[in-house]
Specification:
The structure is a homodimer of 379-residue chains.
Chain A: H1 4-8, H2 13-26, E1 32-33, H3 45-56, H4 69-83, E2 92-95, H5 99-109, E3 115-120, H6 124-132, E4 136-141, H7 152-158, E5 163-169, H8 181-188, E6 194-197, E7 219-224, E8 237-240, H9 243-256, H10 262-274, H11 276-299, E9 313-317, H12 325-336, E10 338-339, E11 341-342, E12 353-357, H13 362-377
Parallel strand pairs in A: 1-10, 3-4, 3-5, 5-6, 6-7
Antiparallel strand pairs in A: 2-8, 7-8, 9-12, 11-12
Helix pairs in contact in A: 2-12, 3-10, 4-10, 5-9, 11-13
C-alpha cells in the first residue's frame, strides 16, 4: 500500500483544465488560455547569454550546496538596493525553483501537528506543503471587500500555542492583491515566525511592494526568477532565513538536492545585474494587459471591488453565472474555448470565483473576452 | 525550536573534507583530491549543443510534470536496447538529479516506522532519505571477501513484516562493486518492492551491468545523467516505477518541483541519442585510471580482495595505518595534501576503510600516490 501522505496530497485542478484544453487543441480546437501561471515572455537576452556562456566555459559541476556565492551576493545586494534591508549571503540557499524551498522550510519548522496560518483563498500547493510535511493548516479568511488584506484581529484569534508559522504571499496568487506595509507590520508583530513567499515581487503595478524583512528578521523569505524574469523552465529560486536555520536546511539540501543547477545560477546573476530594463519593459506590458483584462471583465458584468495590483491574476465572483466554479470553468472551456481556473482550486473561500491570468498578449486577451461575451449572452 | 528531523539528518563527512581541502587551497597549498564523486570530464559536445539550442529556441517553459515525453521515450528505448526490458514512457518521472527522486519514492512507499533494507557500507544519503521520511534502516552487512555482494541468506533473516523496501545500489558507492545477475535475481525473489539506484550504470569496466527490471517489475529504478555523461551540474535524473505509483509520485512532483528544467531535458535527449561514443571514451579512460589506482594502492600496501568494477571508487582497509578513518583522512589531508573520504561516512561497516575516487586524471592520480607513499613511509 502506498503511504497515506502520497494518497492524500492534492493535485492542481488548474492542471486538469490545462490537460483538457491541450486535448481540445489536439482535436484542432483553438483554445484561449487565461489559466496559466507562466509568463509568455522569453527570459531577457542577458539571461540566455549568461546561461549559454556558462555551459560553454564549463560551469557545469556541482556548486556549493547553498549555491554560488556570487549569486548569493547579488541577491543580498538586490535586497539592500531595493528594500534597504541587510542580509548576508550566508543566510541564503539557492533552490531549483521556489517550490523545493518550501520542502526545506516546512521540514525544518514543523513537527507533526504544528499549525500554520495561511489565507483562504491561497495557492493550492501552499496548503499541500504544510500537510504533507505533517503540519495543520489554519485558514484565515480574506475578503474582497478588505482588498484581500489579512484581518489582524481575526489573525490574533486563530493563533494558538500550536501555531508555528504564518504563511504570507504578497502579491497573492490567486487574487493579485498586494499586502500593505501596515498589514505586513501587523503580521510581524505577532512574533510568530513568518514564511513570506515573494515570488511575484517585481510584478507590482501601482506603488511598490515590501519584503517582510523590512519589518522583522523572524522570517524566512522565498523568492525566485520564474515570474519576474520569465524563467519558469530554468527552475531557479532561493530562500533567505535567519542564521539559526541555515545549517539545518543546508543538510537537507545536501541530501535531497546536492545543489542547484550550476549554469542556471550564472543566468540568475545576469538577471540581477543586467535584467532590470527587461523586467521594467515586461512589467509595463503586464500593466497594459491588466487594464485591458479588468475593463473587459467589468464590461462582461464581473465586479472587481479590490485592487488586483500585482502578479498577473484577477480573481472575480462568478456565482451569478453558476455556483459551482469547477463546472463553470469546464463549461466555459467546452463552449467558449477559453481556459480559466476555478476558484475552488484555491480553497473553500475561492468557490464561486474564477481566476483570470493575463500572462498572455493583448490580442489574445481581447479574443478571449469576445468569446466570453458570446458565452455569457447565450446563458 | 527547529524540527527533530532537521536536527537529526546527517551531513556528509566527505563535504567536511572537501571544505577543509578548499580552505588549504585558499592558503596556497596544492591539494590532490581523491575524494570527489564527480567526473572531471565535460559533458559531451552534443549535450552542450542541445542545451544551448534549447535555450535559444525558447524551450524554457515548464514541461509536463512527469517530464518531456520525448525524453521519456528515449529513456524507454534505452532500457529496451541495452537491457531488453520494455517500459512505458508513462512509467517515468524526470527529476532534477536522482536525489529528489528518492524524496518522491520514499514519501510514497513509507509510513512511519516502516523498514528499508540497505547495505552497510552504503552511500550516506541513502540512510538519511529513509530516516528523514519516517522509515527505519535495516542494515545488511556486506563484506569484501564476498565481493560486497548481498548475502541472500542474511537478507532473508533481517526481513520482517515491517520491511517495505530493499534499497539496492549497483555499481555501489563507496565500493564500486557490481552485483551479479544471480544476486539481483535472488533479491527480486523476496517479493519485497525494490528501489534500485542505477546512477552508476554505464560505468562498468569488465562484463556488463544489469537493471533490476530484468528480474522483476516490482521495483522502482532510479537513473540519471550526472555520472555517466559527466552532467552533475545539469541536475537531471529519472525514476521508473510500476504504474500504480506514478500518479501518486506525480502529485508530489507537481507540488514540490512543478517540473524539471526544460532545456536540460533536451540535453538529456541528446545524451541518449548521440552521447554513446563520448560515454565509451570516458569509460575507457576511467578504466585506465582504475588500473593505475588499483596497482598504486597495492604498491602502497593496501589490499584489494574484491573487484571494484564500476563507478569510480575503490574502497580499501586502512586500519593498519590508523583505526579511526576520520582522523586518518584528516591526517592525510594535513600532511600529504591528499583528499580521501573516510569509510565511517558510509556506515559503521565502513570504519577502518578509505574510499579513493579515480574521477581525476592519471598524472593527478600518480602525484597523489607519490604523496601517499611519502606519507606512509613517514608513519
Amino acid at each position: 500500500m502506498p503511504s497515506q501522505r502520497s494518497q492524500k496530497i492534492k493535485s492542481f485542478i488548474a492542471m486538469d483544465i490545462l490537460e483538457a484544453s491541450h486535448a481540445m487543441s489536439r482535436r484542432g480546437i483553438d483554445v484561449v488560455s487565461f489559466s496559466l501561471g507562466e509568463p509568455d515572455f522569453q527570459a531577457p537576452a542577458c539571461v540566455q547569454e549568461a546561461c549559454i556562456k556558462a555551459i560553454q566555459n564549463g560551469t557545469t559541476k556541482y556548486t556549493h550546496s547553498q549555491g554560488s556565492y556570487v549569486l548569493r551576493e547579488e541577491i543580498a545586494r538586490h535586497y539592500q538596493t531595493k528594500y534597504g534591508v541587510t542580509i548576508s549571503p550566508d543566510q541564503i540557499i539557492i533552490t531549483q525553483g521556489t517550490s523545493p524551498a518550501f520542502f526545506l522550510i516546512f521540514s525544518t519548522l514543523l513537527e507533526k501537528g504544528d499549525g500554520v496560518v495561511l489565507p483562504n483563498p491561497h495557492y493550492p500547493c501552499d496548503a499541500n506543503f504544510v500537510e504533507f510535511l505533517g503540519g495543520k493548516n489554519q485558514f484565515l479568511k480574506v475578503h474582497e471587500e478588505d482588498d484581500y488584506q489579512w484581518d489582524l484581529k481575526a489573525l490574533k484569534k486563530i493563533i494558538t500555542k500550536k501555531t508555528k508559522a504564518l504563511f504570507v504571499t504578497s502579491p497573492s496568487n490567486p487574487t493579485g492583491s498586494v499586502l500593505t506595509a501596515d498589514v505586513l507590520k501587523g503580521i510581524a508583530k505577532t512574533k510568530i515566525p513568518i514564511v513570506s513567499d515573494e515570488i511575484y515581487h517585481g510584478l507590482v503595478y501601482e506603488g511598490s511592494e515590501h519584503t517582510m524583512l523590512e519589518f522583522t528578521n523572524n522570517c524566512i523569505v522565498v523568492g525566485g526568477f520564474s515570474k519576474s524574469y520569465a524563467m519558469t523552465g530554468y527552475r531557479l529560486g532561493y530562500l533567505i532565513a535567519p542564521p539559526k536555520y541555515i545549517r539545518l536546511m543546508q543538510k537537507i539540501q545536501q541530501n535531497f538536492f546536492i545543489s542547484a543547477n550550476s549554469f542556471v545560477q550564472e543566468a540568475g546573476i545576469a538577471a540581477l545585474r543586467e535584467g532590470g530594463f527587461a523586467l521594467a519593459n515586461m512589467r509595463a506590458e503586464y500593466n497594459k494587459r491588466r487594464l485591458v483584462m479588468m475593463q473587459g471583465l467589468r464590461d462582461l458584468g464581473f465586479k472587481i471591488n479590490y485592487n488586483p495590483n500585482g502578479a498577473f491574476y484577477i480573481f472575480v465572483k462568478s456565482s451569478h453565472l453558476r455556483k459551482n466554479s469547477y463546472k463553470l470553468a469546464f463549461d466555459i472551456l467546452e463552449n467558449a474555448h477559453v481556459g480559466v481556473t476555478p476558484g475552488i482550486d484555491f480553497g473553500s473561500e475561492g468557490e464561486g470565483h474564477l481566476r483570470f491570468s493575463y500572462a498572455t498578449s493583448i490580442p489574445v486577451i481581447e479574443e478571449g473576452l469576445k468569446r466570453l461575451k458570446a458565452y455569457i449572452s447565450s446563458l
